[in-house]
Design brief:
The complex is a heterodimer.
Chain A lengths: L2 E5 L3 E2 L5 E8 L8 E6 L5 E7 L6 E3 L7 E6 L4 E6 L8 E8 L6 E4 L3 E5 L2
Parallel strand pairs in A: 2-11
Antiparallel strand pairs in A: 1-3, 3-8, 4-5, 4-9, 5-6, 7-8, 9-10, 9-11
Chain B lengths: L8 E4 L5 E6 L9 E5 L6 E4 L13 E6 L2 E6 L8 E9 L3 E4 L3 E5 L1
Parallel strand pairs in B: 1-9
Antiparallel strand pairs in B: 2-6, 3-4, 3-7, 5-6, 7-8, 7-9
Classes of the chains: A mainly beta, B mainly beta.
Amino acid sequence: EVQLVESGGDLVQPGGSLRLSCVDSGFTFSSYWMSWVRQAPGKGLEWVANIRQDESEKYYVDSVKGRFTISRDNAKNSLYLQMSSLRAEDTAVYYCARQDGSVSYFDFWGQGTLVTVSS
Amino acid sequence: SYELTQPPSVSVSPGQTASITCSGDNLGDKKACWYQQKPGQSPVLVIYQNSKRPSGIPERFSGSNSGNTATLTISGTQAMDEADYYCQAWDISTFYVFGTGTKVTVL
């Protein structure tokens, strides 16, 4: 069974930093592109970043470029999102999501972890 | 930037058919997919590559995509289908774009 389990969400002050983790099981993690997708309270879904299997390609939504860094550790079946210079508008549930082989959609999602940016 | 527009809400009676549209420029040239999200839960893929159903998704869910509009159809809608539904497509300039979301209410 495919499982994606996020952690690391917390209350952080504006300008602060946070690192999210996603530990995956039930599939060959190293064979898939992986993404982070977020959802602000009461709002829709927004893709944040993704990473190729060997970390050779990484892409970000414009609003987080230069502030967020996606990474992975295939030996630990883990995906990460280092978030810095956090803003109130980054407040959201952050989901870890596996991308299908065509890389055009997300076939499995974690349960999400809540990041709240507030003073 | 590329945008996908959905109606905010759709109401349907139990056993009837619900149709949810997703509009975007030349969306028919892209591969659309659909996610179901129930309150407090993470999204679940219900349709991919315009019309394919993942394993475990009931046959009452179907999809189509042509011109500027993709459509998710729920036939014989059940109370358990009440949820938010999001379309999504991939665009070379904005990568993964989600629709604005549609709340389906089963009356």
